[in-house]
Every structure is written in structure tokens, then in C-alpha cells.
Structure prediction request, 283 residues.
Amino acid sequence: MNKPLAAALSALAIVGAGAVPAAAAPDHASAAPAHASAAQSVDFAGTVSLSNCSGSVVRLPASQDDDPALVLTNGHCLETGFPEPGEVIVDQPSSRSFGLLSSSGWRIGTLRASKVAYSTMTDTDVTIYQLTRTYAQIRNRYGIDALTLSDTHPVAGTPIAVVSGYWRNIYNCSVDGFVYRLKEGGWTWKDSVRYTSACDTIGGTSGSPVIDKTTGQVVAVNNTGNEDGETCTVNNPCEVDENGTVTVREGINYAEETYLIPDCFGLDNKLDLGRSDCVLPKP
Prediction:
């Protein structure tokens, strides 16, 4: 997995959280954006930095301005530790803070969670936090709009940007294809996005939104990559097709699709795993 930075410090000793280990965190409050010009059509507005990962303020297609805002990151970025295979966490109290970034990558404010609405590393790798502020309150105070989650499956060949709020870096590449099953350690993810090689994401990019550069919508969340060419081990995910054939692609990175998320939320951005179209894993 593209390791959260705390995990990266002991990468050889513990189970990690996705791709290449990073050495040390930048001073987010004062550091200048490192690669603000990396993408021409996508910027940092709506992204956030976590203590060890990246993320984004997201809204669903049906979200209203007075709904409590949501932050999307990885399941393996959860502050209480990685969810176990088969584990699903819902409505867990949280006061985690997030650094909100401007379009150019400067930290302009702090947002705070009221709870973990949903978190899992089963079938997918996502954590969704509910915030203490609404979309309208964030816009009125900071001039920042949330990114919209697409409710349609991404398309191979689509130009994308992986926007890391942690490192203030934007990786530009394309959707190379989709993986029937992506296995890493004890976890298995379904229908994962495989990037072309230009998206060489590193530790701390975990949880970055993957943005379709044509629509501007979020189609996936960055989560892992094969570091060393090993097969199905932690930090070395392998691809498994419908016939059970295993393929290893050293140096290639991956994301988990997010189009299934909107079907699992109802009015007021409230999680409702009982909705007829919701297929996310349940507790």
C-alpha cells in the first residue's frame, strides 16, 4: 500500500499501507507547494492533508449544501489502525483534523471530523469521515468547493490526475485498465484501477483522489503499488484474473474505484448500507 507516513518509518517491521515508503513529512503549515504546476487542468482545491496520508473533501451527486461535508481517504489511513480482512467500521466517533488546501496547494484552514461514517479494507480500501461543517460553511469561510464523486464506472484510457494533499504533488497519467482481484497480504480488493507508469505514487499519497481530467470528478482513491516485484505480499500487490492467473507488475500503482459509494448514502449524507443498490461490504 502507499504507506501512511507513520507506517513508512518502520516499513520493514509492520504491515504497511500502500506503495513506496517515504522518509519524513514536510512542514505543511509553511512549506511551499512543490509541484503546483504538475497538472494544467486539475489543482489542489478540495484536497486535504492528513497526519500520515492524503484525502479530499467530497460530495455525492445528490448532496446538498447544508449537508455535513465528507472526507474521503483510504481504509488503511484510519487513525485507529488498519481494518482487518472482513472488518467494516461504521459510525465510529472521531475528532481527526484535516489540513484544507487552496487551489495552489497552500494550507488555508483546518477541518475536523465528527465521526468515521464508513471504513473498510475489504473489497475496497476506503475511509469516509463526516465533518463538523457543511459544504456551505466550508465554501463561505474558505472559498473551496468539494470534489464530486462520480457515480459511473471509470473508463480505460481516461486521462487522470492523482492529487496528493500530503506532498502537494499531482501525478498525471491514464487509466491503464482494471484488475479483477488485487491481493496484498491478507487483503483482497475488487475491480481495482491500474495506472499507466507515469503515476509513480509514493508513501503519503495514500488516500489521494483520482480525478478524471475530462469531467473533474473523483473516480477512485489511490491506495497501493508493487514496490519490489514480490508476489501478493504487503507493499507488493499482485493481480489475479477470473481464472486465478497471477500477474506481478513491479513499479505499477493502483487505486480503488469509488462509483459504488453514492448508492450507500441517503438524505443529509447519511450512510445507509441497507439501500437496495448499495453493494459496499457491511458489518
